[in-house]
Structure formats: C-alpha cells, structure tokens
Automatic annotation (TrEMBL):
Lineage: Bacteria, Pseudomonadati, Bacteroidota, Flavobacteriia, Flavobacteriales
Gfo/Idh/MocA-like oxidoreductase N-terminal domain mapped to chain residues: 46-166
Classification via Pfam families: GFO_IDH_MocA, GFO_IDH_MocA_C
InterPro entries attached to this UniProt entry: Gfo/Idh/MocA-like_OxRdtase_C, Gfo/Idh/MocA-like_OxRdtase_N, Gfo/Idh/MocA_Oxidoreductases, NAD(P)-bd_dom_sf
Organism expressing this protein natively: Autumnicola edwardsiae
Alphabetized SUPFAM superfamilies for the sequence: Glyceraldehyde-3-phosphate dehydrogenase-like, C-terminal domain, NAD(P)-binding Rossmann-fold domains
PANTHER family reported for this sequence: BILIVERDIN REDUCTASE A (PTHR43377), BINDING ROSSMANN FOLD OXIDOREDUCTASE, PUTATIVE (AFU_ORTHOLOGUE AFUA_4G00560)-RELATED (PTHR43377:SF2)
Ranges of residues in domain Gfo/Idh/MocA-like oxidoreductase C-terminal: 180-464
Protein's recorded name: Gfo/Idh/MocA family oxidoreductase
Length: 478
C-alpha cells in the first residue's frame, strides 16, 4: 500500500456518524485518492489550495483541474494577495470561493485535502492547521525550514487522523525509478557511497536570487528549497537514515558581489550592461500574476540578483553519513553555464552512473534559457528521438553495461503525472519501490538541509540527533 490507510473518519465524517447531520456516514477507502459516500459510490475529493504563486496555480492548480476533474473539485483558494487570488481563479478555471484568511477558509468550506504551496517558511502553519482539523495535506518541498517547525509537524501528524503527503515528484521520475531498480537488483552489490553533483545554470539558478528564495528567513537557503529534492532522492536510493552532515558553502557570486545593482530589472539603468537582466514584461502570465498585483503585498518578481538583502549560499558542498555507513558527496552549483547533474553509485561489486545536461556528452545542443521550462512543461513526456539518458553500470572485472534509456524530461522526468496518479487514482507503479513519501521522508530530507546549513554557519559536523528525536534506522527500509 503506497499510503497508510486513514483509520479514522474525517472531521465531516465524525459529525455525520455522530448524528449531527442527516447526510449519512462517510468513510475513506484504503487509498488516499478515493472517498466513498454512504451508497459506496466514489465521490470527488474536495481540495483547497493555499499559496497562489506560479507553482500553485500551474502544477497544483490548472494541471490538476485539467487531468483529475473526475477525482477532485476545488472548493477554495487562499493567498494573502487578493489580486493574485483573482488571477489564480481565472487561470486555473474554477468557480470556488477565495480567501485571504486561511482560518476563515477552514471555517467556511468543507475540505478533504489541503495543498500547500506558500513561501517555504510558512508551510508548517498550514500543514499543522490542516492535520489538527483531521484534513489530509499535500505539501510542496521542502516540508519546512528549521528543526523546531519540523518537530511541530511530526507532533501534529502523530495526533492527527489525517495524513501528510510530501510532493516528492523526483522519486517518480522515470530515470530515477530506473536507477532505483538497478540498485535493488544488486547489480553493483551493497551500496558504499554516492557522488551527486547538481548544476543550476545562469538562467534557472539566477531566478532563485531574484525571488523570495534569496532570503534565508523565507526559504531556509537552497539547501532546503532546492536540495530537499536531492536529499530525498539520496535517502530513497540508500534506504537508510542520515546521521551526520558536514558542509561548506558561501555567497560569492550573487548579492553584494557586484559593482552595480538596481531596484529591479524593469527599472534598472544597467539593463544593457548586466548579463543577468531579465525582461518580465515578455511573459504575460507573470505580468498578470505578479506585476499587476504588487500593490497588495509589495512582492517584486523581477528583483535584482545583486541586491544586498540576499543572504543565502550560492555554492554548496555537503558530505552525509548514513546509519548503514553509506557516504554521500553532494554539491549544488547555482551559476553553471549548463543545467544538469552527474550521479555515481559505488557498490562493493561495481559502479553505476548516469548524467544529464552535460553539453559535450549530449547528442542535441539545447537552449539553456529553456531547459527549466521544459522540465516544468506538462504537455509532453518524451524528448527528441536522438536523445536518451545514458546509464552505465559495471561489475568489477567485467565489461560495462550501457543502457540508452528513453529520454524523458518534461514534468520532472515524467514524475509529476505519475505522482498524482498515485495520490488521486490509486495507480502504483511498483509497490516494492515505495514512491509515496510521508512525514518521516519530508522530515529527513529537510533535516539534512538544516544540518548542512548549521554546519556551514557553525563550522563543524552536525548530527541529525541534535535536531530531531527521530531514531535512525540502519536496516534497509525502502
């Protein structure tokens, strides 16, 4: 079973069962995606979205409405910005009520599932309130941004009949699923270490420094906002718990590290001189969603990447030790000339590796300004006929095995649709691989990032036990 069965009734179900309404009892089926009425007929799950930024309205909004309207119905949208709310309602294409107050939405609307896509540092507020009201929650990564909030979420999950689901769509990516299968097939023997280098290019990487993500108090640094994806993948591949983290990092490219800066790209006098000038006026959706609604909350979407308030790292190097003695060497670069990654898995019997986006190893030259756009695009899940993911694994003293794996880039390596298929349609790719992620998975991913951030700031190794009461599992558990 991908998600643990919801053993209790929902808040509405409790009221109905206790006779406070004549509507009849409602029970939840074993998989999260189905709710049955008293005639054993499946009804749509009532969902509410909090956070109507670009991620919320696109991935958790329009994409879900277009693909899962037979399973869900939007019953509420919530954001602190009323202008964005109105645009979100139009863009998603729904007729549900909108709220600038989350508590009011909880009181006014009957909700089965809350989807959280707000600023990272506020995720815990909505997760905890949802769980406290026995409402299921799906949250974007990272689950939260510090150890105190992490424990509050863990405590809320323990006390709730509802479930928190982490939207770790990378796990579902077809390439990463293939790597997991090769590891599970013992092709390289017992895993010893992993090397992961992730490269963000000067388009995608720079975008984080234009937005709220560049402020540590909001994003927790990219070790939380971005690397939570990578740390969860590593935890999933290894099947054991992280126990100690040593990290190095600094802010050397963006922020104050430049001779000039402007208020934002639109009004900057250095447009012709700045390599990082970005013209938001060419993007109609972003203009309508952000620029036309700046008056409500003052949020500037095309901020200067050189502004002095930026206080996150732009280079990161992390070493992680696991309970089963696997070692990880990880790096994240935010101003690479190309976007991609290198994965290397070392086992006692051999090595497995793959790569993506390394220009001199690709058959097709790509426009770096469009790479991230293709990753987010949901319209297609296949690539150029001449492209493929190269996977190589080789046992000691044997010849290498080379796989030309079908190229999938759109929708996070095809993972977006597969993740939502499991959540809303009970379609499980392979139960043995445990793609579905819960509160423990979300906690461990952010605890690695928090430990890495603390290690950089304090100049020492940080044990996960310093941050959480979660007991590490040495044995293979996924």
């Amino acid at each position: 079973m991908a998600f643990e069965q919801k053993k209790g009734l929902t808040r509405r179900g409790f009221i109905e069962k206790t006779g406070l309404t004549a509507a009849g009892a409602m029970v939840v089926s074993p998989m999260l995606g189905q709710i049955m009425d008293n005639t054993s007929k499946e009804r749509k799950r009532r969902v509410a979205l909090v956070g109507t930024g670009i991620r919320g309205i696109s991935f958790f909004g329009k994409f879900l409405r277009e693909n899962y309207s037979n399973k869900i119905e939007f019953v509420g949208l919530c954001d602190i910005n009323p202008g964005r709310l109105q645009y979100a309602k139009e863009y998603i294409g729904v007729e549900c009520p909108v709220f600038t107050d989350f508590d009011e939405m909880l009181q006014e609307v009957d909700i089965d599932l809350i989807m959280v896509t707000t600023v990272d540092a506020t995720h815990h507020e909505f997760i905890i309130k949802g769980l406290s009201n026995d409402i299921d929650v799906v949250t974007e990564k990272p689950m939260t941004t510090d150890e105190t909030k992490t424990q509050l979420i863990i405590d809320a999950q323990k006390a709730s009949k509802a479930k928190l689901i982490m939207a770790f769509n990378y796990r579902y990516g077809q390439l990463f699923t293939k790597l997991k299968k090769i590891l599970e097939a013992d092709e390289i023997g017992e895993l010893v270490s992993i090397d992961l280098n992730w490269y963000l290019n000067t388009y995608h990487g720079a975008s984080y420094f234009r937005r709220w993500h560049g402020i540590k108090e909001k994003s927790g640094t990219l070790l939380l906002h971005k690397s939570a994806h990578h740390f969860d993948l590593l935890n999933w591949f290894i099947g054991s718990d992280p126990v100690e983290v040593t990290a190095y990092g600094d802010l050397e490219k963006y922020g104050e590290n430049h001779s000039f800066r402007g208020p934002n790209c639109r009004s900057c006098s250095f447009k012709n001189e700045c390599d990082f000038y970005w013209d938001i006026t060419k993007d109609e959706k972003l203009m309508k969603l952000y620029v036309e609604n700046e008056e409500y909350d003052g949020y500037i979407r095309d901020n200067c990447v050189w502004r002095k308030e930026i206080n996150i790292f732009d280079k990161h190097s992390v070493q992680i030790k696991y309970a089963n003695n696997v070692i990880v060497n990880y790096s994240l670069t935010t101003y690479s000339p190309f976007e991609g990654f290198r994965f290397g898995f070392n086992g006692k019997k051999g090595r497995l590796e793959t790569h993506e986006g390394i220009p001199w190893r690709e058959t097709t030259i790509v426009d770096q300004s469009k790479v991230h756009e293709k990753e987010m695009d949901q319209s297609s899940h296949t690539g150029d006929d001449n492209q493929y993911h190269e996977i190589v694994y080789q046992r000691n003293f044997e010849k290498p095995n080379r796989i030309e794996f079908p190229y999938v880039r759109s929708g996070h390596w095809g993972g977006d649709k597969l993740m939502f298929d499991e959540i809303f349609e009970n379609k499980v790719i392979d139960p043995a691989l445990h793609h579905a992620a819960d509160v423990r998975d979300g906690s461990l991913a952010v605890l690695v990032g928090i430990a890495a951030r603390n290690s950089i700031e304090q100049g020492r190794p940080v044990k996960i036990a310093e941050l959480s009461e979660l007991m590490p599992r040495k044995e293979k558990w996924i």
